[in-house]
Structures are given as C-alpha cells and as structure tokens.
Design brief:
The protein is an alpha+beta fold and 215 residues long. 30% of the residues lie in helices and 27% in strands. The protein has four helices and ten strands; from the N terminus they run ααααββββββββββ. The strands form two sheets. Strands 3, 4, 6, 7, 9 and 10 form a six-stranded mixed β-sheet that branches. The chain has a four-stranded antiparallel β-sheet with strand order 2-1-5-8, with no helix packed on it. The longest helix has 24 residues, at 61-84. It is elongated. The protein starts with 6 loop residues before the first helix and ends in a 6-residue tail after the last strand. The model has no long low-confidence stretch (mean pLDDT 89).
Length: 215
C-alpha cells in the first residue's frame, strides 16, 4: 500500500532505472523530459521540504513555492498522459479519498471500486449525548468549485453542512439505533455522473446506544 511507504521508498521505486523506463517514463515525460535522474532530483527536493514540515520546522516562501510547482508539474504530467491515451473522460470525477473522525478513526477510500457506496464500520460504542465529528478529504486535483458536498444523517440532508468538508453533531434520543448512518455524497457540476446522480458516496455505520444510566 503506497500510503504506508516512506518518501525514500516512493522515490526509489519511481526512479529505479528499470522500473522508470518500463512503467513511468511515458507518464512523467512532461514533468521530467530528461528521464529518471531529473525525476530523482525534483522528487528529492519535495522530500526535503516534506521532512522539514513533518518535524514542525519552518520552510521559506521559496520552498513553499517550490513544492507547489513541483507537485503541480507531477500531477499535470500524469493528467496529460491520460488525455493522450483518451482516458481522461472515463470516470474523471471528484472522489473522497480519506475520512477521519473525532474518535481517532482514519479510513482510506479505495481508488477504484465497483460499489456505488463505500461503507466504513466504526468499532467504538457511541452513546446518546456524545459529540461526534467527521472530516473528508477530496481529491485535490479537483477545485472545490467543481463539485458539491452533501451530508446525510440517517438519510436526512444536513443543509447547514452543504459544501463543507466537516460534519458534526451531538446525538440525542432520536438518534438511538443499532444501525445509525452518516453519509457524504460528492457530485460534480458536470452533466453526467459516475453513478447517474452522484460521483462518490461514503457511509459511516455504527450504533448509537441509549444514555448510560447514572446510579
């Protein structure tokens, strides 16, 4: 799983000569026309800036501009590759890629799934009267102006959280249920959608128990 790799590992796999020529050269040629050595130089610069930030060290404005430009070049090269292959129109839609909540859960949404809705089951017990919040991360290659976000609590639309990446609530007795759901739907502004009416939907499933009795 790429999410568990260190930057050094990712750079090694991308820039190893045999891998690069066979797997990545065509995709990254726009960003690195001189090959894997050039790719290694620019990716290593990103790594150094990333390492500084991960240890709460300050970076310069120039370094911030560098990482924005270098990552943008990488992403645009991959996008250009798919355009040339005629694949940019196949489900090129905004997608929820990561979910975190106030209970410390982190879920990663599969990059490619045949299910119309990804379901994530919480292991923790939640009781009436408790506060709960959940945050989503949407694929950053799409501008926030390109899609809408809709939250549903037990299928009731939460209008005050429309187009917000964070939803929160305090459960009351009306929420008590063995199977309680909070859903989030992302829908692009295009005239077509991957699932007819929307492009991505995740569902958090858990139990909301009655309040703990005080004796």
């Amino acid at each position: 799983v790429v999410d568990t790799l260190f930057m050094d590992d990712i750079i090694y796999l991308l820039c190893r000569e045999d891998f690069y020529q066979e797997l990545f050269a065509e995709t990254l040629t726009q960003a690195y026309p001189n090959g894997q050595n050039e790719a290694h130089v620019f990716l290593d610069r990103i790594k150094q800036i990333r390492n500084a930030l991960s240890h709460a060290n300050a970076i310069s404005i120039h370094q911030a501009e560098q990482v924005i430009c270098y990552t943008h070049d990488f992403i645009e090269s991959v996008k250009e590759y798919y355009v040339k292959k005629g694949m940019e129109q196949v489900w090129n839609v905004p997608r929820i890629i990561k979910i975190t909540d106030s209970l410390g859960n982190t879920f990663y949404n599969s990059t490619d799934t045949h299910a119309q809705m990804s379901i994530f089951k919480l292991k923790q017990n939640i009781y009436c009267g408790e506060f709960y919040s959940v945050n989503i991360e949407v694929d950053s290659t799409f501008s926030e102006t390109e899609y809408d976000i809709i939250w549903l609590n037990q299928n009731a639309i939460q209008t005050m959280f429309t187009n917000k990446k964070t939803y929160f609530t305090t459960f009351d007795e009306s929420d008590v249920s063995q199977v309680h759901t909070i859903k989030c739907t992302v829908t692009s502004h295009k005239n077509w959608h991957k699932y007819k009416y929307y492009d991505c939907r995740i569902c958090l499933m858990f139990s909301v128990f009655p309040p703990i009795s005080t004796l």
